[in-house]
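Exercise 7.
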Amino acid sequence: MANRRDKPKRKKRGAQYVRPRKPSRFSRENVIWHRVVTVVALLALLLGGGGFLLLRGVREVRRVLLEGNSRYELRHFEISGDGSMSEERLRALSGICEGTNLLSIRFDVLERRMERNSLVESVHLERHLPDTLVVRVKERVPVARIEGIDSTYCIDRFGVALPLFRSATSLPLIKGTKARFRRGELVNDARVGTALKIIALCNSTVTLGRYLSIESLDVRYSDYVLARLKNGVWVKIPPRSLRTKLRDLATSVKLATEQGRSPTTIDLTPDRPAVFVRETASSE
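Solution. The predicted structure, written as tokens, is:
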């Protein structure tokens, strides 16, 4: 059988070469995810705009029906303090007057405005509809005087510097600080804080107050506060265990008084509870 030469295959007419498509960088999952993000963003935008419009609508209704209603005009304004500040001064400090819409008064703003005054410790507010506002002011009470570099101030139990009152001459004097003070500012000194604790403890009980009448407190020392009592006794008081140390001091002063002795110096700095006293004979 003769070899038959293979004839070349003819291409079919109309057949075209198609280049294979490259895979898209966005898979089907990515397309779905982007669509979801787009829909969520549109919904958030619509809801946010709706919420903003709703909030504006509520505020407008409040303004028209409540804050613009003459029924809620302030007619009874009761304001008072527990100290020396007069009613006229407190009214001026509040900035509120009769005729103001009661519902337009923001309590947080009013409190901050009044507490900016160095004499105001706290403010209590009550609103009684339709036309009454009650303001009760707690004033700062000076517990001591304090010497600064440039001047002497009063200071309250929290350590806030106050103006020097004429009636404060009998208060204990805190000295030994090397700082400048400003009215209404907190005295940020740990040694001054110790002195204030000593004063507070002496005023907390009848026994301590009877035997420990403090004239001055020198806070220049790092290990103790040097106190001078009004009976002339000098006392070294460490900053630790103040209540116990002051009780020991009161007991020592009481015994010395009952026995007719006149101690000049009492040292409370040792760790052991013993109190060391150097005495001089009392005058006849």
